[in-house]
Amino acid sequence: MPRELPNERMQIGRLSRTFSFLIARRWYVLACYALLLLPSAYFATKVRQDNSLDRLITTSDPNYIATRDFQRVFGAGEFALLLIEADDPLSPAVIGWVDRIERALRTVPHVTANSALSVFRRAQAGFEPTAAAVEVFRRFVTEIRSVSQTGVGGRPLADHRPHARRAWQRGARADARSH
């Protein structure tokens, strides 16, 4: 049997007395916690979170300046992802639907739509979902490497599963033969 040192006995005795005191007065402890809960909840709702870069880094920092320049070009802020699934994502009906959604989003203050269609619209100085314009957009999405790698045209996004790549390639060859 291990021998206890005098200091350990004193520690165990002090700890035992402390817990005995708390257990004997557990209702007082519970009442104190209950009383502290209301102001704690009130003050917790007053805490604001500001993740803006100028609150995290000084405005003279080179990283802040570079990030601000990047945001001027590519935008920044909170993001929401809207995913639209369709059998043929580049059909005129689907492109027209996406175009209507993006136009509706533009009416919302501080909201910007970023998609292959919005990039195309900026590059072509406008876009109306006519059959001819949709065909030009289809070529834009499928032929430009940086756009086609995002999966916008129905291609798997960085899908390294061989069977998925082969299935997509078979579908792409079948589409090419049918046109």
Provide a short characterization of the protein structure:
It contains nine helices and no strands. It has 179 residues and is an all-alpha fold.
Which quaternary structure do these chains form?
A: single chain
Number of helices: 9
Helix and strand element order: HHHHHHHHH
Instruction: Characterize the overall form.
Output: elongated
What is the total tally of β strands?
0
Number of domains: 2
Radius of gyration: 31 Å
- If you average the pLDDT, what whole number results? 75
Main beta sheet: strand number and arrangement?
none
Q: How much of the polypeptide forms β-strand, as a percent range? A: under 5%
> Structural class, please?
mainly alpha
Would you give an account of this structure?
With 179 residues, this protein is mostly helical. The chain folds into two domains: 9-38; 80-178, no CATH class. The chain is 63% helix and 0% strand. The longest helix is centred in the N-terminal third of the chain and has 20 residues, at 26-45. Residues 153-169 have low confidence and may be disordered.
SSE diagram, text form:
Blueprint: H1 6-24, H2 26-45, H3 53-56, H4 62-74, H5 92-106, H6 116-123, H7 131-143, H8 145-148, H9 162-178
Task: Give structural attributes.
single chain, 179 residues, 2 domains, 9 helices, elongated
